[in-house]
Amino acid sequence: MPDLPDDLLQQLLDLIDRLRDESAGFQDQPGDQQLWYNRGYANGMVQALGELGAGARLEGRQPDDSEVLAPHLPMPWGKAYRHGEQMGQRETHEITGKSSE
Question: Which of 4, 53, 73, 87 is packed most tightly, with the most Cβ within 10 A?
Fold first, then answer.
């Protein structure tokens, strides 16, 4: 990724991995909105890094399947996921100093 220090990118990738590990099985726990938020945050980070040209460094980290998530999005846990996703995208852009626009 141009102009992004390797150590910063590695820290972001480590955070994605940690959040995804902690939120494994989130779909089976709709009552745990924090879990859904954290999973969404990690997903937003993956999306932002892909947008910023770090796709090759994602090494198989893919965004969550939107078709699987779609039925949950109107529910409170789905809204928590979507909010986390938006924050993950925004804050990744802020941390990297790269605009999302």
Answer: 4
Q: How large a percentage of the chain has pLDDT more than 90?
A: 83
- Reported as a single tens digit per residue, the pLDDT across 23-34 is 999 999 999 999
- 3-state helix/strand/coil string of 56-100: HHHCCCCCCCHHHHHHHCCCHHHHHHHHHHHHHHHHHHHHHCCCC
Taking the mean position of all CA atoms in its chain, how far away is CA 51?
Answer: 12
Which letter does DSSP use for residue 1 in this model?
Answer: -
- DSSP secondary structure string, 2-69? TT--HHHHHHHHHHHHHHHHHTTTGGG-TT-HHHHHHHHHHHHHHHHHHHTT-GGGGTT-----HHHH
